Amino acid sequence: MINLAVIGTNWISEKFVEAAKDSNQFTLSAVYSRQIESADGFAKEHQAPDCNFYNNLEELGADKRVDAVYIASPNSLHCEQAILMMEHGKHVICEKPLASNIDEVTRMYSVAEKYNVVLFEAFKTEFLPNFEELKMSLASIGKVRSVHLSYCQYSSRYQKYLNGENPNTFNPLYSNGSIMDIGFYSVSTAVSLFGKPDKIQASAKLLDSGVDAHGTVILEYPNFIVSVQHSKVSDGNIASEIQGEDGVILIQDFSECTGFTIHKREVSPQTIHVEQEDNSMIYEAIAFAEQVRDGAMNYAYVQRSLEVSEVITEIRKQTGVIFPADK
């Protein structure tokens, strides 16, 4: 079993720890929180009586029992915390986005190579069984000509922002906003399916805080265009689609990708669905565990992570979203 530590005790950490336990690859061995009581409570909730808990990151890094660390802190802290853990010889799985910009991401992977540890971005969509089916089904619709990826979801924190509370979700100090959250799924899905685009055109509407509330991105490839629609201030209810010369694939929710439907001319629609675990984070946990056991990073994952960060950094440059990390 891989001895796992967790940085952050929020809802996403809860889901990942449950997924990690269900994968039968990990044991929860340590928890970090700024409040020691929160770390202690998290360990007890997950029935980890032998778990150590910390409110000091240096002490966590020095814990010899810990093999790997899951980081679910605010985006702006990912780089610093991941590097500290890797310098202590820990493998790191870090929530998406891996860092604030491409410079930080590049530096993080350099540190991973220097200390011979695994650094892995937790982008779950790429590892879902139905997403694998989607990749294999692309050939069935012929040459791809147009793609539309829509992910718009009204944030539960938006009312707090409107009330003047300025939560992390809409605060540039934490490297946040729509493209860094909702939009990340769309960009990463495009890059995972088609690689890095040749050209990027982006527009967005910014909140007074300085982050984007919603936006549109055009990713140009040699023979087709991917249009991305993302929002954290409105709900969307339209399917995403991949149009080919011989048919179209409709995906209702590509981030969870529980299935999709292929429509071809003069042929009855074909729905593709394979069984997936309810906690979809289990597949990224398994992918991380495989790399840790192999003692090496999968460079296809590294390349996708670098390309996505490069694309999103360029999107923010075009839309005027600036973080302290950029300076």
From TrEMBL:
Residues 2-122 form the Gfo/Idh/MocA-like oxidoreductase N-terminal domain. InterPro entries: Gfo/Idh/MocA-like_OxRdtase_N (IPR000683), GFO_IDH_MocA-like_dom (IPR055170), NAD(P)-bd_dom_sf (IPR036291). It holds the Pfam family GFO_IDH_MocA. Residues 140-249 form the GFO/IDH/MocA-like oxidoreductase domain. It comes from the Bacteria. SUPFAM superfamilies: Glyceraldehyde-3-phosphate dehydrogenase-like, C-terminal domain, NAD(P)-binding Rossmann-fold domains. This is Gfo/Idh/MocA family oxidoreductase. It comes from Vibrio algarum. The lineage of its organism: Bacteria, Pseudomonadati, Pseudomonadota, Gammaproteobacteria, Vibrionales.
